[in-house]
Design goal:
By secondary structure, this protein is α/β, with parallel strands linked by helices. The chain contains 11 helices and 9 strands. A hairpin with a 4-residue loop joins strand 8 and strand 9.
Length: 310
C-alpha cells in the first residue's frame, strides 16, 4: 500500500485536505500553528471502474481495490532540521512515508494567519525543501563517515557507495533535492538504501480559494508554483480547494452527483484519490483476475512481472 505524507507550513490547509481525502474529521483544522501534533492516519480506497468489469468476467464477489494511506504530519517551520517547532517529530514521520503531498497555500484570507506574514508559495516551498535538504546532508555526512573505512579496505560496494555520496554532497549543498541528481539506474537503486527525504516523489497541492477554483490555472500563485516545479523539482502539481472538499465530507457519492453544475461538482470528481496515487510516484496499476478474486495493487512503472508487490 502506498503511504503518502501530507506536509506543509502551519495553516496552509493540510488537515483540511486530509479530512477531505479520507472523508473523515479525524484531523483538527484550526486557525493557529501546530494544531496537529500527533500524525493522523487514514486509509482510502482507490476507485477503479475497471475492477467492476473484471468482476463480471471472473464472476466473483471478492474484489480487492488498491488503497493509499495518508498521514497528516505536523506543520514544519524554518529550523526543523535542527529541532525547531515539531521538527524532530516531522522528520521522523516523513521518513516512514513513500511519497510526499506538499500543501502550498495559494489563497489570501486575512482571517487565517500565515506564520511567515504573507502569501508567497515559492518561498514556502523553499522553506520546506531547505529543511529536508539539510536533514539529508546530515544523513549523507554520517553515512560517509561509516563508509570511508570500508572503502579504504578495498570493499568494492563501499567504494561505489562512497563515490555516490561524494556526488550527492555538492548537489545537496547547492539546495537541490536528491531526486533531481543525474544518476544511473544502479546509483538510483543504491540511493534508496540512504533513505533520503528529498529522494521521495512529491506532489504539490496548490490550495486555492473557492472563488478561484474554476480558473485555478490562472491563479498567479498557482502559476508561480507551476513555474517553480518545472525548473527546480522532479515533481507534479495539482490545484485543489481543501475547504470545498471538507464541506462535502458528509455527502454520499449520489449526493455529489445531484450537486448543481459548477466548480464544487467538478472539483469533487477531480480531487478524489484516483489520480493522486498514480501521480505521486510515477506509479501504475496492476489488475489481476483469478477464479476467486479480482485485485488491484500499485507498482512502480517499469517493474517487471517477477517483482514483488508495492
Amino acid at each position: 500500500m502506498l503511504k503518502a505524507g501530507i506536509v506543509g507550513l502551519p495553516n496552509v490547509g493540510k488537515s483540511t485536505l486530509f479530512n477531505a481525502l479520507t472523508r473523515s474529521r479525524k484531523a483538527e483544522a484550526a486557525n493557529y500553528p501546530f494544531c496537529t501534533i500527533d500524525p493522523n492516519v487514514g486509509v482510502v480506497i482507490v476507485p477503479d471502474e475497471r475492477l467492476a468489469i473484471l468482476q463480471k468476467i471472473a464472476k466473483t464477489n471478492v474484489v480487492v481495490p488498491a488503497a493509499i494511506e495518508f498521514v497528516d504530519i505536523a506543520g514544519l517551520v524554518a529550523g526543523a532540521s535542527k529541532g525547531e517547532g515539531l521538527g524532530n517529530q516531522f522528520l521522523a514521520t516523513i521518513r516512514e512515508v513513500d511519497a510526499i503531498v506538499q500543501v502550498v497555500r495559494c489563497f489570501e484570507d486575512p482571517d487565517i494567519v500565515h506564520t511567515m506574514g504573507g502569501i508567497d508559495p515559492v518561498r514556502d516551498i523553499e522553506v520546506i525543501t531547505t529543511e529536508l535538504v539539510l536533514a539529508d546532508l546530515d544523513a549523507v555526512a554520517k553515512r560517509i563517515d561509516k563508509t570511508q573505512k570500508k572503502a579504504k579496505s578495498g570493499d568494492k560496494e563501499a567504494i561505489l557507495e562512497l563515490a555516490l555520496l561524494d556526488k550527492l554532497t555538492p548537489h545537496l549543498n547547492s539546495g537541490k533535492t536528491a531526486n533531481t541528481l543525474p544518476a544511473t539506474d544502479d546509483e538510483k537503486a543504491m540511493m534508496k538504501l540512504f533513505q533520503l527525504l528529498t529522494a521521495k516523489p512529491v506532489l504539490f497541492a496548490c490550495n486555492v480559494a473557492e472563488s478561484d477554483l474554476a480558473t485555478a490555472e490562472q491563479n498567479p500563485f498557482v502559476q508561480q508554483v507551476a513555474g517553480y516545479v518545472r525548473t527546480h523539482h522532479d515533481a507534479a502539481y495539482v490545484p485543489i480547494s481543501a475547504k470545498i472538499e471538507s464541506e462535502l465530507i458528509d455527502l454520499t457519492p449520489r449526493g455529489c452527483e445531484i450537486l448543481p453544475q459548477g466548480p464544487r461538482r467538478r472539483r469533487f470528481r477531480r480531487v478524489g484519490v484516483d489520480p493522486w496515487h498514480l501521480r505521486l510516484a510515477r506509479l501504475a496499476d496492476v489488475l489481476h483476475r483469478g477464479e476467486k478474486e479480482v485485485r488491484a495493487w500499485t507498482i512502480k512503472k517499469g517493474w517487471k512481472a517477477p517483482r514483488p508487490r508495492a
